[in-house]
Specification:
Elements: H1 19-27, H2 34-49, H3 53-57, E1 64-65, E2 70-74, E3 80-84, H4 87-101, H5 124-138, H6 146-158, H7 163-170, H8 176-192, H9 196-201, H10 213-220
Antiparallel strand pairs: 1-2, 2-3
Helix pairs in contact: 1-5, 2-4, 2-6, 6-8
C-alpha cells in the first residue's frame, strides 16, 4: 500500500516587536508613579532577556542579582537559567526596587512585582492586562510579552549569532523554534538588501555589494550568504 504524504503546513513568519514600538510603549511609562516605574522595568526586562511571560511574571525578589545585573528565570520543565540585562534596565529596576521598599509590608512578599495598590503580587495575567493597556495608550496593537521573545531571537539570528547559545539563553531544548526565527531573519535581510536586478534596471550597478559575474550568478541561484560573506558597500 502506497504511503500517503502528509500535507505540508504553511510556515508563517513569526511576529516580532519592533524597536520603534518598544520605544513608544516605554514612552507611555514616563513618570514617577509606582505603576510607571514598575511597568518600565517589566517592559525593559522582557526586551533585554527575551523571557517568557511567566518567567518574568513569576520572578521572585531573590531571583534578581543587581551586582551581576542578572535574573534567575524559572523556565518550562523546572529548567532554571540565569540571564543578564543591560545597565539601563539595571537603573530602571533599581528605581522600582526603591519604590517597592517604601510599601508597608512589601518586604514580606517574595514576588518581585507588586500590584499598583497594596502589597498584592502582580501575577502574569496582571502583566498581560497591563501590556494591553500600555499598548492602547501608545497606539501599539497586539502587545504581548512573547513578541519580545520573537524580537530577541530574530535580532540574534540577524546579527549572525550562534543557535546553540540562543537555545541556552531562551531556554529551548529543541532547535525547531530557532529555525523559525532564522527564517524570519533571513526574510528581513532579503528585504533590507535589494536584489542586483533592481539596481541594474535603475542603472546603479556601482552600488552593488559586488559587481563580479561570479557573485551575480551565485545570487541568482539563490545564494543564502548575503549579509554574512558579502559586505554592503555604502557609496557615500
Amino acid at each position: 500500500m502506497a504511503r500517503v504524504r502528509q500535507p505540508k503546513t504553511p510556515q508563517k513568519l513569526v511576529p516580532i516587536m519592533r524597536d520603534g514600538d518598544t520605544k513608544r510603549l516605554l514612552g507611555s511609562t514616563k513618570g514617577n508613579t509606582f505603576a510607571a516605574l514598575r511597568d518600565e522595568a517589566i517592559i525593559r526586562l522582557y526586551y533585554n532577556t527575551g523571557a517568557r511571560l511567566s518567567e518574568v511574571g513569576n520572578a521572585l525578589l531573590t531571583d534578581l542579582d543587581m551586582n551581576t545585573e542578572s535574573v534567575l528565570l524559572h523556565g518550562k520543565g523546572a529548567k532554571d537559567r540565569r540571564v543578564r540585562f543591560g545597565p539601563k534596565t539595571s537603573r530602571v529596576l533599581a528605581r522600582y526596587l526603591r519604590a517597592r521598599a517604601k510599601r508597608d509590608g512589601a518586604a514580606e512578599v517574595p514576588q518581585l512585582w507588586l500590584a499598583e495598590q497594596g502589597v498584592r503580587p502582580l501575577a502574569p495575567n496582571g502583566i498581560k492586562a497591563m501590556l494591553k493597556r500600555r499598548g492602547a495608550a501608545a497606539g501599539v496593537a497586539n502587545v504581548y510579552a512573547h513578541r519580545w521573545r520573537h524580537n530577541f531571537a530574530h535580532e540574534w539570528h540577524k546579527a549572525g549569532g550562534n543557535t546553540g547559545d540562543l537555545m541556552l539563553l531562551l531556554g529551548w531544548s529543541s532547535d525547531d523554534m530557532p529555525r523559525r526565527y532564522a527564517a524570519s531573519a533571513a526574510a528581513e535581510r532579503a528585504q533590507e538588501f535589494p536584489s542586483p536586478d533592481g539596481y541594474r534596471r535603475a542603472g546603479l550597478t556601482r552600488l552593488l555589494p559586488c559587481a563580479s559575474a561570479k557573485w551575480y550568478s551565485a545570487w541568482s541561484r539563490g545564494c543564502a550568504r548575503w549579509g554574512s560573506t558579502w559586505q554592503w558597500s555604502r557609496m557615500e
